[in-house]
Automatic annotation (TrEMBL):
It comes from the Eukaryota. SMART domains: EGF (SM00181). GO terms for biological process: signal transduction. GO terms for cellular component: cell surface; extracellular space. Pfam families: FXa_inhibition (PF14670). This is EGF-like domain-containing protein. Residues 31-69, 71-108 form the EGF-like domain. InterPro entries: EGF (IPR000742), Growth_fac_rcpt_cys_sf (IPR009030), SCUB_EGF-like_domain (IPR052071).
Length: 119
């Protein structure tokens, strides 16, 4: 190209992320470049030509080995006080004398609420 260049690969190869290196396309099976790998976050190609899914920090793989769920390990799962990992993801809780807000993550001083309740 005038003043620049663009790389192309022969048939059976694909251009890597650096846009300079050609990588041999696996004969069969899924790969990370064709976007049909099904990984929710990160796809890694295995030495045998398959794929392995990984999750971003604060998430872990679910049992299907493709989807990712939030955990308490990063940012306390979004919880203000306590966080417990469940199969559905983080479950927030509150310290003594606090109540969980309807948003499911914030804790409200329980003594303030009780003082406002009518006798």
């Amino acid at each position: 190209m005038m003043g620049s260049y663009e790389c192309f690969c022969r048939e059976g190869f694909f251009l890597s992320d650096n846009q300079h290196t050609c990588i041999q396309r696996p004969e069969e099976g899924m790969n990370c470049m064709n976007k049909n790998h099904g990984c929710a976050h990160i796809c890694r190609e295995t030495p045998k030509g398959g794929i392995a899914c990984e999750c971003r920090p604060g998430f872990e793989l679910t049992k299907n080995q493709r989807d990712c769920k939030l955990t308490c390990n990063y940012g306390n799962g979004g919880c203000q006080h306590t966080c417990d990992d469940t199969d559905q993801g983080p479950k927030c809780g509150c310290h003594v004398k606090f109540l969980l807000h309807s948003d499911g993550v914030t804790c409200i001083d329980g003594s303030v609420l009780r003082a406002e309740d009518p006798p």
